[in-house]
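CATEGORY: protein folding

GOAL: derive structure tokens
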Amino acid sequence: MCAGRSAWLRHFTSATPARRWRFATAYLRSHQETRLVTLTLGANDYFRFLKDCGVTPQPVGTCLLGFFGMLGVMQANLNTILGAIRATGYTGLIVAVTYYALDYHDTSGTALLNSPMVAAANANGALIASGLDAWAGTAAGGFSCAAGLLIVTAPGVCRRASDAAGTRSVGGEGDQHHRCELSGEQAAIGCLNRNRAN
């Protein structure tokens, strides 16, 4: 990773959501050669919901919305984010990467958590790369912890995190003419060229 990109990632991951928003949209306005934006959003909304619902004696914040209300707010926020990206004048690819499951024995909860991202992506012309499908074969015996998709803190004990093993490119589930199976830099560049808006 080059030093400039490393500094950018440190800035972006340590910033508040408002600073990230301003930085990302300013970056896209000033870097018109950008050809790909990827995002994975929503899990923090769910974790906040769980935290708010755990407050005693009376739940607070997002818990008052109920689970499906929280999903609705998540989708509205994603629509706003995707709209803001396009409002910068950016016409390249946007790929929404869905979450993988913590436990592949039952993926219904993960599919539900991914549903606002899928709906917002479809409504805003973004492609979908299914993290749920991409990592299914890797989850050893159905357990993401055993497969190394989570950070191991002790034998058989993991904590949630982004893919601890690194980042993998996955093909989108969108329209077939937008689908890209990426393997190597040249394939990725070909995919970007093929899907670039005119």
